[in-house]
Amino acid sequence: MHSQRFYTLTASCPDRAGIVAKVTGFIAEHGGWIFESNMHTEHEALRYFLRIEIRADSLPYQLDDLRARFAPIAQELNMDWKINDSAVKKRVVLMVSKQEHCLYDLLARWQSKELDIEIPCVISNHDTFRGFVEWHGIPFHHVPVTPDNKAAAYAEVQRIFDEVRGDTMVLARYMQIIPPELCAAYPGRIINIHHSFLPSFVGAKPYHQAYQRGVKLIGATCHYVTAELDQGPIIDQDVIRVDHSDSVEDMVRYGKDIEKAVLARGLRYHLEDRVLVHGNKTVVFR
Amino acid sequence: MHSQRFYTLTASCPDRAGIVAKVTGFIAEHGGWIFESNMHTEHEALRYFLRIEIRADSLPYQLDDLRARFAPIAQELNMDWKINDSAVKKRVVLMVSKQEHCLYDLLARWQSKELDIEIPCVISNHDTFRGFVEWHGIPFHHVPVTPDNKAAAYAEVQRIFDEVRGDTMVLARYMQIIPPELCAAYPGRIINIHHSFLPSFVGAKPYHQAYQRGVKLIGATCHYVTAELDQGPIIDQDVIRVDHSDSVEDMVRYGKDIEKAVLARGLRYHLEDRVLVHGNKTVVFR
Amino acid sequence: MHSQRFYTLTASCPDRAGIVAKVTGFIAEHGGWIFESNMHTEHEALRYFLRIEIRADSLPYQLDDLRARFAPIAQELNMDWKINDSAVKKRVVLMVSKQEHCLYDLLARWQSKELDIEIPCVISNHDTFRGFVEWHGIPFHHVPVTPDNKAAAYAEVQRIFDEVRGDTMVLARYMQIIPPELCAAYPGRIINIHHSFLPSFVGAKPYHQAYQRGVKLIGATCHYVTAELDQGPIIDQDVIRVDHSDSVEDMVRYGKDIEKAVLARGLRYHLEDRVLVHGNKTVVFR
Amino acid sequence: MHSQRFYTLTASCPDRAGIVAKVTGFIAEHGGWIFESNMHTEHEALRYFLRIEIRADSLPYQLDDLRARFAPIAQELNMDWKINDSAVKKRVVLMVSKQEHCLYDLLARWQSKELDIEIPCVISNHDTFRGFVEWHGIPFHHVPVTPDNKAAAYAEVQRIFDEVRGDTMVLARYMQIIPPELCAAYPGRIINIHHSFLPSFVGAKPYHQAYQRGVKLIGATCHYVTAELDQGPIIDQDVIRVDHSDSVEDMVRYGKDIEKAVLARGLRYHLEDRVLVHGNKTVVFR
């Protein structure tokens, strides 16, 4: 990200001639300076996607004004769109269970401002990491989940998330299945890291499945959470080589490194408004 | 491979104390010089695997003698075993259809002696590559396969393979399903390259499946052919990164590079007796 | 590439506000339909790069007309620019020595129309591949190079290249150093595959150098040839893992797979006008 | 690693016939059960390397006895050798400066017992991470380094390291050059993570160098520290893809993920006695 403040316009619309001319013509009209721009046409679906960063100080008006002036163009082009301000930090709520690798990793990135976000709180179904999280000055909420209290527990998660005005919920190896209601409440805003190279090895114990099948690479997948388990739009994936000498425990260990890296990359793409969802797929303007 | 002649012993047996001492003690007894050795214990199954290369000129007797002398030890250890001679070239029959990339690739490797094998013939269900194959001085057999003649066609394939004394059959993007009878006739001797990162995208059109699912890496898998489609023991796999801008055609194109490399690596491991099958998995002594 | 005909505009110019609006406004003016567009700003150098594919049948005039109409805009923006027609196949001359892997690989891609190019001839300092090349119906020129005839030999190479109206010269493991005069005659038009991950292991025998240093990955680099050996702008690179058990010969063998894939990718980017050179670096609009 | 206690024998010696027979014959003599064994011959140097894990409870005597009994064999074979006990945790001293990613990463692995080591202390030339380290119950030593106090500072580092009986010193992005005296004091015991794919980009600011050269992959290298800067034996390396759109800051960020993973892998190999140094190279029995 640039040190200068900028507005990020992301949009998608039916493809036709002249879209980018219309959008960039509007930006240029008042001297708007473009930092970075990406376009993509999904040729099968005839749908157009774009992401444009505009230097904030190059426009003679404010964000609200920009939105108001752009609205008629967006309407004419039948766009899904939004404009975000780089000066407004995203608020990211972390959900964890008893594995520490993604939590340590994300807090290190937050600590060093590599991830320039607010973490208003961490929520966990275990009390394990209270001390570690609170040492960082971040509130910690222990919301136990049992077979009997699921509805109440996730109502509480939702209450906390809303109360802290969360933008994005990150399941940082949170080992519980998110109920459909919660998925529906925050579409495209809950990010999970699954410890396999999806669509292989959906569900529980993917490293055991990988070991049994004898695959020669294992991986991890960062995706948006939808009601269907491990089926949401994929944001990023990666793999690492294993061989016959690696036990399930070795795979788990190697896998953690992939999980951390893939989750951090995927989250960053999301936070920078680089991910546009199209059906069950994503356009990622890297 | 070394330029010097050597014998390769590969074996597996129930694990216990003293196996390697017994085997290498036997080799050392007459001054046998070990070039390379690999061992592996499958701890869950308590099964031991080994591969040892012995310099041929370090032994005061011939291969048959070596086998005869080793047999009692193998029996005592309850071993599955074989000893191959690096001076005897393996005879590899290629099966192709209408895609050229694996064929060109394997012939280039054969031409340069990177693959130091005999190719007694190429068999195809199309006549497309007759000229190219025959230009290389390799006999070409056109065995058409139709829904009606399958049994006869594969009987003919088997007849040719036996007639040329084939050791290994390579499905170099041969776009037909091998019938169970043929699979059963040559267990662990038919090698396929599947154009996906198995177990994802079994069956037809894996790149289309990958495109539909929106994965961020695509791959290929080299495996032994068994009666169950795309379920045989995996020898090698690899992947390459794709993104939203890649069409199915792009994926096919990127995929071909992975297919060639993975097939060539897997085939080489097999030909050098580096692959030991264990149930539906492989030990690959790279 | 799309099956439909299109024009590809590539350009770079000093960065300022309004560039993309001006360019795409011009395209939209007569209904030009954009297939694909990529932009990039080099923020340090304040230089702007763009590549736009325009559907040929969406414009009411021909290529020459398009160029003439665009020229004033390009001048206003102080652009380096060109517009190519996808219907005009690029003419690629291959230079080889005695290694076959890149030659087989490129001819397989040409044969299958994966690379939709003309190969007007192959030039070699050895006669080794005459039969193979001519079997494909491609003229073969044997231009021996000795310490004494270098100037004459490369004059002959240049004469042939010009005579066949070559667009691009590919050094497909051509094991000779191209003299500065030839480099200067075709800037940004001679592509080499170097068998190391540059800038490591410049010059001769890079795999030996890699073996001596004990690196754990080896690679290959596709780059434009400039007068300074192995220092030209890098188009693409890749690596593969090796370990202590790999001899120099193993590295050579593994390396060939990387060389083929990287050369083919880099060449394709070049042929599709996806590579824009900026000083000694490249912008590659993948 | 296995949950059962074992002894690890690592050794190297001049190659000859019968080495493994002699060593494993000795182990088998008293019923020693081998968990895992690896051998390698460096054919050029005619040197033999081996690593064997022996189940502690399969031997009728203790570690000291094992060493004493093995010594004559080792002498006969002219071996460099050692035998370690898996029940004795290695003592690892971390050296850090002001970057947190490797520190957080290693402490997370230690916390979860993925790295089953003792961390007797962390030493830093800055006081930045005192709180974080001490929160984990680990002593923290601030040893400032200035141009004027180098000799005294590293004498203090050495004093602390000896006092806490350190086995291995890890430079976890410790941004100072270790003086030759310290390198000489602990040969093969100081591990560094260099933020480039060596031998490219030795010395300071490797990501800047990579950016200037326009490479398409960046990497990191875990190596033993020797008196010659960034020239020590390489333990592990890895890379990640970048492109023209990545700034130096992006490269730094991507690089950190590689650094963490490569350092953790290399350190683990070292701690498990999987790394045997041979001249300026390593044999890594993965």
UniProtKB/TrEMBL annotation, chains A, B, C, D:
Record keyword Translocase present: no
Catalytic activity of the protein: (6R)-10-formyltetrahydrofolate + H2O = (6S)-5,6,7,8-tetrahydrofolate + formate + H(+)
EC numbers, comma separated: 3.5.1.10
Residue span, ACT domain: 8-88
Keywords noted in UniProt: Hydrolase, One-carbon metabolism, Purine biosynthesis
Pathway it works in: Purine metabolism; IMP biosynthesis via de novo pathway; formate from 10-formyl-5,6,7,8-tetrahydrofolate: step 1/1
Entry annotated with the keyword Hydrolase: yes
Class in the EC hierarchy, top level: hydrolase
Family annotation (Pfam families): Formyl_trans_N (PF00551)
Gene3D superfamilies: 3.30.70.260, Formyl transferase, N-terminal domain
Matching InterPro entries: ACT-like_dom_sf, ACT_dom, Formyl-FH4-Hydrolase_C, Formyl_transf_N, Formyl_transf_N_sf, PurU, PurU_ACT
Active-site positions on this chain: 230
Function comment: Catalyzes the hydrolysis of 10-formyltetrahydrofolate (formyl-FH4) to formate and tetrahydrofolate (FH4).
HAMAP family, per the entry: PurU
Family the entry assigns: Belongs to the PurU family.
Alphabetized NCBIfam families for the sequence: PRK06027.1, PurU
Name of this chain's protein: Formyltetrahydrofolate deformylase
